Known about the structure:
Family (chains A, B, C, D, E, F, G, H, I, J): Belongs to the muconolactone Delta-isomerase family.
Largest sheet of chain A: 4 strands, antiparallel
Catalytic activity (chains A, B, C, D, E, F, G, H, I, J): (S)-muconolactone = (4,5-dihydro-5-oxofuran-2-yl)-acetate
Oligomer: homodecamer
Protein name (chains A, B, C, D, E, F, G, H, I, J): Muconolactone Delta-isomerase
Strand content of chain A: 25-35%
Order of helices and strands of chain A: EHEEHE
Number of helices of chain A: 2
InterPro entries (chains A, B, C, D, E, F, G, H, I, J): Dimeric_a/b-barrel, MLI_dom, Muconolactone_d_Isoase
Domain Muconolactone isomerase (chains A, B, C, D, E, F, G, H, I, J): 1-89
Amino acid sequence: xxxxxxxxxxxxxxxxxxxxxxxxxxxxxxxxxxxxxxxxxxxxxxxxxxxxxxxxxxxxxxxxxxxxxxxxxxxxxxxxxxxxxxxxxxxxxxxx
Amino acid sequence: xxxxxxxxxxxxxxxxxxxxxxxxxxxxxxxxxxxxxxxxxxxxxxxxxxxxxxxxxxxxxxxxxxxxxxxxxxxxxxxxxxxxxxxxxxxxxxxx
Amino acid sequence: xxxxxxxxxxxxxxxxxxxxxxxxxxxxxxxxxxxxxxxxxxxxxxxxxxxxxxxxxxxxxxxxxxxxxxxxxxxxxxxxxxxxxxxxxxxxxxxx
Amino acid sequence: xxxxxxxxxxxxxxxxxxxxxxxxxxxxxxxxxxxxxxxxxxxxxxxxxxxxxxxxxxxxxxxxxxxxxxxxxxxxxxxxxxxxxxxxxxxxxxxx
Amino acid sequence: xxxxxxxxxxxxxxxxxxxxxxxxxxxxxxxxxxxxxxxxxxxxxxxxxxxxxxxxxxxxxxxxxxxxxxxxxxxxxxxxxxxxxxxxxxxxxxxx
Amino acid sequence: xxxxxxxxxxxxxxxxxxxxxxxxxxxxxxxxxxxxxxxxxxxxxxxxxxxxxxxxxxxxxxxxxxxxxxxxxxxxxxxxxxxxxxxxxxxxxxxx
Amino acid sequence: xxxxxxxxxxxxxxxxxxxxxxxxxxxxxxxxxxxxxxxxxxxxxxxxxxxxxxxxxxxxxxxxxxxxxxxxxxxxxxxxxxxxxxxxxxxxxxxx
Amino acid sequence: xxxxxxxxxxxxxxxxxxxxxxxxxxxxxxxxxxxxxxxxxxxxxxxxxxxxxxxxxxxxxxxxxxxxxxxxxxxxxxxxxxxxxxxxxxxxxxxx
Amino acid sequence: xxxxxxxxxxxxxxxxxxxxxxxxxxxxxxxxxxxxxxxxxxxxxxxxxxxxxxxxxxxxxxxxxxxxxxxxxxxxxxxxxxxxxxxxxxxxxxxx
Amino acid sequence: xxxxxxxxxxxxxxxxxxxxxxxxxxxxxxxxxxxxxxxxxxxxxxxxxxxxxxxxxxxxxxxxxxxxxxxxxxxxxxxxxxxxxxxxxxxxxxxx
Lengths: 96, 96, 96, 96, 96, 96, 96, 96, 96, 96
């Protein structure tokens, strides 16, 4: 099942810089593992924002929530979730 | 260049039903031509809404505007445009 | 899978009264069939509003969208969809 | 009487981690007692959010307020309350 | 139980003037009956608006909804409902 | 003259607990004096919120502002003010 | 007593042009009478809008409402009202 | 040229009380100088708010910005600016 | 003096197509005259919208309002106005 | 390609004053280099705000994001981006 997810990051200023570096490295590894598995289908930067626009392809709401709440940046992000499905005008049966 | 585009349709009730049918058929053909050309990369239905979430891959703002303003449903849609780019954590050089 | 759905109805004033009566009867039958099947788990009136707060328990986004877009009142409603899952503090494994 | 309640948690970063652990354990026990008593009829996690969507079945506004203002997480939550009642299309007399 | 209710009226321009007169007379009688019964405890005009701010004292959500949805102006009003209770600083046990 | 006033409290976490206790006691005394004088006509708790919905009956804007800006909790509250007057459908000449 | 009032006009397109002309002439006369009496202290156009920003100096809420609800354009305006008073830094006792 | 300016003050709690006193005294002197010069034409308190509604009469945008950004409270205020001009219904040529 | 102006067009569906054509031709001529005079310094289309983002360079608010309220499309546009001035980091004294 | 960018600055109070001075000097140099290169085509101050309204003329979204995310003030700004293109009524082929 597909979900569009918008994540906007707001790192607190008093986060120690080594801790920020460590969290961002973990976030990148975490994201890339999920991209490789096919569950985090797309990730794009939104121009001018510390934010991304992503497409997830997961089994159900539970798996999506497990993934999102496990993000190392989760405590520092505002997240919006939109459930998506095949559009009747899509030329592909399985547009992901 | 990539753009996320959200289109929300609001067909007026007094649109004659044959005209609506004709416009919707034109919209579908128009969209599918652009999907085949690769410019309209993705189109998904938003669950529970008469709306779609799409990704466009076009040359520039002009081409995007020409495409969107040429949509047969353009007069009946609210449209929002968000410019996207490669995310530094993306595992692909060219995620579309 | 569970979804909270809020539906707010806005019947146009120029809807002929027999047509309104017919649509509302269809809506009721449509809703009650889905309630009996267990897919429309809960439906409550929101106090003071021509609106309901509902819980759906369906297979996936596609089934939810098929149900919602098939509502006889669909053209006259504003709909919001929120994906829900089991809460870690829930005392039941399967709270529906 | 039924109420839909949305609770969104925002734990301050400077909350000592042991205190957070203690508060969350108290919150869980408090919630589960009320679930067992039937007053906190449903609790669901909202996908991607540190938030829940709940249904309360209590005697009156006073009891609802007493319960909500007594939540160990009350100082760290944004809460919205919506009064609900039986929907005329409900198939059950007593949908809770 | 107490509720604050804000009602904002928007009479459509094409409402025949006799029908408007009739509806407004019915609304006034309906409101005054409820005021006399003590259920519509207070009604005030909001300065500069075609709107009122009211306090209802009714048995439960059902009775409130029955009253509000029965208002002759109900199809022409936007309504917001806020559940109220005794404030701990109130000097009266029963402030209505 | 009548005013509806909504006050929403947001006590900062780093307010020393004795200071909070002292301010809240002052607030209660301040409010009850004004209630006894008839100027603070009604005060109700809003269910589920650290907020109240009040009706003031004062001489003019100046007196209202003097009262509100003198509230011990004034620095910690968001306040909204709505001027009210007699409603033409009110059964009482002097509904307060 | 002073009030800031913002009025935004939205004339319906199907208002017959003679009727619009008549209403606008009445509105102008009505406004100028009140300006001469000192009750409508200031009226300014907001640049680029079919709207005005005004200051009223009237006895009480009732008089303000009587004036505003009597505006020939009242059915075609959105109105917001803000109660004003002397500012402690004002150099005049009686700034109007 | 005329501008309506709304200024809403939010003094941070950790501002030392002597510094706050000094800034507020400077603000008052600064404002009164500009009122005497005729540039700060009106200043009113908004009832119930730590905010003012003002009318400025200055040469151009530059002068307005110089004045506003020079306010001792500028770092602690939210400011909105609305350009005003003579209203065609004004009875005075030069309403300030 | 400089102003940023955003204009969003909403042509009513029942505008006769010849009238629309005539208005749009007038609008274009009107705009181009002002562009040639230097008063309408820039006009850009906003991608995906029936809207423009413009920069005006006029004598004062009056001239701006006269221009905007004289637009043939004025009755069909939503307009927002933002006063601009030289930025202290600008490399040009006179950036228009 | 053209973009309108609105940047609103919010410097935290606890930023050491020398650090603020250094960042602002860097920001100015950074901006002026880009202005000289023609990529930061226009920059204007918004009257009464610690904010600017700018026009960028860059190769694509990537270049825009690289520029904006490299701003020394980037962590302290809220940024909005609007893609612009030639307006059909523009008298210039290449209005920048």
